[in-house]
Amino acid sequence: MRASLIQIAVDEGESVESRRERTASLVRSQAGAADLVVLPELWTTGAFAFEEFGREAEPLEGPTYEAMAKAASDAGVWLHAGSIPERDPEGPLYNTSLVFTPTGDLAAAYRKVHRFGFDKGEAVLMGAGHDLVTVRLPDTTLGLATCYDLRFPELFRGLVDAGAETLVVPAGWPERRRAHWTLLARARAVEDQAFVLACGTAGTHAGVPQAGHSIVVDPWGEVLAEAGHGEEILTVDFDPAKVATTREQFPALKDRVLGLEPPRR
Q1: What is the reported pLDDT for 233?
Q2: Which residue range forms the structural domain that includes residue 197?
Q3: Catalytic site residue 120?
Q4: Residues near 69 by beta carbon (within 8 Å), at least 6 away in sequence
């Protein structure tokens, strides 16, 4: 199976409409070159451009949905279209990922569970999702997570229990914590014995330099490919069957002990 991670550069001087058109063109460029294409988190606005969330929020089936559905269909690829600031008419904003089939149909939508910012930014501007989301592809099952989710292993174990074999993580990760990005991507791969496809952004979001360095990690924690700092398409071949082989050869997941309680005092 071949995946292409498109590490979009977010330039504050480029309009959302222009970046949407440019990104759709990049997706189309992967026709015949990839089975699965992955985009970063909040690439329309920038993950740290908090003031843009409300202004650029769109309904689930808004302009980004339409552009990415058509791009997926034109390219004939499975497309994880990164995430958008979704405006729910009956609730708050959400940081919502969209996955499309090669015919342009929506396969899944995932609302980010863990919101970053503590007492500001995304944490107060967006609502939290509550669902584990997986997507069955012909050769593997994707488990969906977004950026800050990467720090919470419980979510990923839940995805594995739901059948996930390839964990896809779009992100807008800052440069100053790039070491954590690489470390956590490899940790999630090792502990869950799964592939991790982690796609970040390049450029600067509201004055926050982005880490870039999108990365693909195999179930043994080996880095199969890693991007640089700027805009780039990172393409890698991987064998989904390696997940089952790894779990058979080193069946650590079978030794999990669940339901432990804290000591009584």
Answers
A1: 98
A2: 2-251
A3: no
A4: 100, 104, 105, 106
pLDDT digits (tens, 9 = 90+) for 67-80: 999 999 999 999 99
CB 247 within 8 Å of CB 165: no
> Could you read off the pLDDT of 122-161 as tens digits, one per residue?
999 999 999 999 999 999 999 999 999 999 999 999 999 9
SS3 content of the chain, % helix, strand, coil (to 5): 30, 30, 40
Count of domains observed in the chain: 1
260 within a domain of the structure (yes/no): no
Cα end-to-end span (Å), the chain:
52
Residue 30's CATH number: 3.60.110.10
Catalytic residue among 56, 122, 147, 199: 147
Rg (CA), the chain: 18
Q: How many CB atoms lie within 10 A of CB 214?
A: 30
Catalytic hit among 52, 86, 112, 165: 112
- Is 254 among the catalytic positions? no
Catalytic (active site) residue 199: no
pTM: 0.97
